[in-house]
UniProtKB/TrEMBL annotation:
This is Homoserine O-acetyltransferase. It is found in: Cytoplasm. Substrate binds at residues 201, 319. One of its GO terms (cellular component) is cytoplasm. Its EC number is 2.3.1.31. Keywords: Acyltransferase, Amino-acid biosynthesis, Cytoplasm, Methionine biosynthesis, Transferase.
Length: 351
């Protein structure tokens, strides 16, 4: 399915006070609204994903999957700053007629949500039956549920947090240091900073997976090697794979946006902000997640009023939310079969 584009012709003011003219948002929809207009499933995507959720979340979203176009009207919008159809550092700056590159204004998770609210209004979606996302997608979902608590009926937060941790910021800053070590980042070309981006992705991957993941998937077949290890090849492959489909400028700005995430900003603290959520909420944590430790999801569960908590046991670490789709389906199915206040969900069994 091809990506559609929504153009907002007004002035889009960012949280910083800076402004964007001619905001464009790339988005995909699947299925159609039912008569009661109560079958909307809105997906917030993660850092380098796109709006084609059927492509990157197979097993959970698809014609034969739990979230399918026969039952649901599924919407996924590309985030601000990403190169997949939404205005980004590679877009043309109307003031200069040239790409923005490093002249693009910094933005926050709240700015991403503000843009997607405009899209929801354009699509005449008054109520979202299910809003969900993992990682940076979960950060967007939790913000939206606080900004518009009456619009969101059910909320699913996976491997995410209420505010980005010093640990997460440190990982992102290390990746940005890798990008800026590549002098071409400042050259003002679409492929500027590519070598730095490759290194940055290699760093990021260490936070997405875990010791156990590498021990199993990158283990050497014999004891005689002294170089060219599987783990080395894997890091190079994954770094180049991102370079082939993304750009250093979008990555730089989106990592900054992730760092900005703090729902307590301007709301008298995180716990006060969480108390504003009215949606029936499922929080899912991954036991082996290094980047978003499960304690962060347990914190959300304790402070969101109508919430349930589920633990996903996966050796894939943070990336488990993209891989363990069968277990996610079981958890989500169980969630919608039970009252949620103060519940712990263990896969198909409600404790």
């Amino acid at each position: 399915m091809s990506t559609q584009t929504f153009t907002y012709t007004g002035t889009f003011e960012l949280e910083s006070g800076q402004k964007l003219q001619g905001l464009e948002i790339g988005f995909n929809t699947y299925g159609s609204l039912n008569k009661n207009r109560d079958n909307v499933v809105w997906v917030c995507h993660a850092l380098t994903a796109n709006s084609d959720v059927f492509d990157w979340w197979k097993g959970l979203f698809g014609p034969e999957d739990h979230f399918n176009p026969d039952e649901h009207f599924i919407v996924c919008a590309n985030v601000l700053g990403s190169p997949y159809g939404t205005v980004s550092p590679l877009s043309i700056n109307p003031a200069t007629g040239q790409p923005y590159y490093l002249a693009f204004p910094e933005f926050t998770i709240r700015d991403i949500v503000k843009a997607h609210k405009l899209l929801a209004d354009h699509l005449e979606i008054e109520h979202i039956e299910i809003l969900l996302g993992g990682s940076l997608g979960g950060q967007q979902a939790i913000e939206w549920s606080i900004i518009e608590p009456d619009r969101i009926k059910n909320l699913i937060l996976i491997a995410t947090n209420s505010n980005h941790s010093p640990w997460g910021v440190a990982f992102n800053e290390s990746q940005r240091l890798a990008i800026t070590a590549d002098r071409t980042f400042y050259a003002g070309s679409p492929d500027g900073g590519s070598k730095g981006l490759k290194a940055a992705r290699s760093i990021a991957l260490l936070s997405y997976r875990s010791y156990k993941t590498y021990a199993i998937t990158q283990r050497e077949d014999d004891d005689n090697g002294t170089d060219n290890f599987k783990a080395s090849t894997y890091q190079n492959y994954q770094g180049q794979k991102l370079v082939n489909r993304f750009n250093a400028y979008s990555y730089w700005y989106l990592s900054k946006a992730m760092d900005s995430h703090n729902i307590g900003r301007g709301r008298h603290g995180v716990e006060k902000a969480l108390s504003l959520i009215k949606a029936r909420t499922l929080v899912i944590g991954i036991k082996s997640d290094v980047l978003f430790p499960i304690e962060e999801q347990q914190y959300l569960f304790r402070h969101i009023p109508k919430s349930a908590f589920a633990e996903l046991d996966s050796f894939y670490g943070h990336d488990g939310f993209l891989i363990e789709t069968e277990d996610l389906t079981n958890i989500i199915t169980s969630f919608f079969k039970t009252d949620v206040k103060g519940k712990i969900i263990e896969l198909q069994k409600i404790a």
